[in-house]
Amino acid sequence: MNRIRYVATIFGLIAIPLWSISQIFLMISQIHSGSDYFNSQISPFEILLVLHIFVLVGVLVICQQIFLSRRRSSFRGLFRLFQQPITWMSASLMIAPSSQHSQVVKVQKAEGLPVNGILSPTIAAGVLAYVLRRRREQIQDLATPDRLTESEVQSLDKIRRCAQDAEINAAIEIDLVSNSEVVQIVRAVDRKMPETETSESVATEWALVVKLFGYPTVENEFGDTAQFRKRRALELLTWLALNRDRSRRSAARTAMWDSDITDSTFSTIVSDMRRGLTEIDERSLRSDWVPTTYSDEIPLSPRVITDDVLMAQALDSFRKDPGASAEILRVLSDVRDVPFAGTAYSWADLDGTTTRLVILAVTAAMEVAHWALAVGNVSAFEVAVTAGLRVFPGHEELLALQEKAKLQCHISGFHSVA
Question: Element (H or E) spanning 88, and its range?
Fold first, then answer.
């Protein structure tokens, strides 16, 4: 029995340092330039590396005691040490973490958004709270957010679904900075619209317009309003008009519904949407508005546009020639309320659509109001200020323009538009 223990001790004295050496080389090979392993926060990777180094130092000290002192008492003490269970337990701790090491490194280096199975409902709700807060701040700063890519929209929708079971109070207090899973969405939400990007998809000929400032309505050129039997039909039409670059059945169903719906239910909604559009344009067929396809695509006719497109086009024309203000004033006079008022389109709030619409209307209102105040056009000033305060009640600059107009009323003939 003693001989077996002796052999086991010698084997352990050789095997354990060799194992530590191999693990140290493996860890060093996995450290890439730019990796943030050695920062102010101690990671399991760093602890494991230090432990392996301590093992090598300990073995060197033991070898010095054995081979340099050449005293049998030293070897017997070493022999008794290796017979203790605590020694072998310590050695096992050095081996056990190695099986998890590669997983730890992969999690630290992950750059995507692994929502499924990793993101908790509390963190997901925290992401949504952050997104909505940033959208409000962007409106305050008039900082137009960039459109989310299709992959970012899908990730955000997964987060929205994951957050359904979370407690709101806990979600508001969650620290998003320390969760690498949400970095992709946080960066996407903070991304600003490029200044050089302009709306070039303006239809010169249109038959129906989806009015977004207020409760969504669909009107023809004569002012007739489309009637839909199903509430989702109007929402689907609104989503398709705003997302022509991703007009697919799967994308629409993901954005509009929190749970899966049957194909027959979705087909019924599409059919009601076609019927409502056809009733206010008797010259067209149902397939003219949304052609029948046997794929995932669900294209919307280019003859259906949204009023923000008309507003952007009119604002661009006004900037080129302020004297041609009739069109921008007509569009501003159609502003009834905040975008999507009276609806629960969560996709519009999260992906920045509501924010972009508010900023567009406020920008147009301020530019027209400044021009009207300068030239003394009372009616244009009233239309612009009223439209701006409808989409952004309490806007400080518009209210300041009102006060300025009151001070000039005895000279220019302005009347209060409060």
Answer: helix 85-95
